[in-house]
Amino acid sequence: LGGCGILGVGVWLSVTQGNFATLSSSLPSLSAANLLIAVGTIIMVIGCLGCVGAVKESRPLLLTFFILLLLIFFLEILSIMLFFIYQDEIDHYAQRDLKKGLQLFGTEGNVGLTNAWMIVQTDFRCCGVTNHTDWFEVYNASRVPDSCCLEYSDNCGLDNPGTWWTAPCYERVKDWLNENLVALWIFALCTALTQILGLVFSMTMFCQAVKVETFYA
């Protein structure tokens, strides 16, 4: 169930905000959506292992399920702790990496990144990573993409700054995540509870299987 939940959230993020995956120049395939899909799939496979072990009352399978699930649980806790400890460093790295990605905007072979920035700036009504001047370094001129314009039209990015969005896209995306923070925490707690129950039940069945085997031995 925990694996299904994580996989579901990953698919939802991929469908609704999947364009963020192509904004990074160094890690184009690494995104929250892809990470959740991968983790959810792994947990589902491990869950199936536990189900088979429970049905067959197999001690090796139950013990393997317990160890793998415990390892994943600790890795999740460690990841959350590291995220909060190094949050400022992560912010600086993310902004720097996104600014590097701006240099690839409109270049050959980077259609995904170009479309992603156009969609993000249009949907979130923002311009650039930290502000609209980020684009000045890309164009070597005081202009921005047309997706930065308050009212879209061809070559509107050549007009004066008063016709452009001024909000930074990085902060807008962070605000969107903060707005959904309560739902994300509820989901995380439910997932953790499900995993803890899985650990308890698998170890209980393992101990019961040991007692039965000892009794008949």
Automatic annotation (TrEMBL):
It is found in: Membrane. The keyword Glycoprotein applies. Disulfide bonds join C127-C148. Belongs to the tetraspanin (TM4SF) family. Gene3D superfamilies: Tetraspanin. The chain crosses the membrane at residues 32-55, 62-86, 182-201. The keyword Acyltransferase does not apply. This is Tetraspanin. Keywords: Disulfide bond, Glycoprotein, Membrane, Transmembrane, Transmembrane helix. InterPro entries: Tetraspanin/Peripherin, Tetraspanin_animals, Tetraspanin_EC2_sf. One of its GO terms (cellular component) is plasma membrane. The lineage of its organism: Eukaryota, Metazoa, Chordata, Craniata, Vertebrata. It is a multi-pass membrane protein.
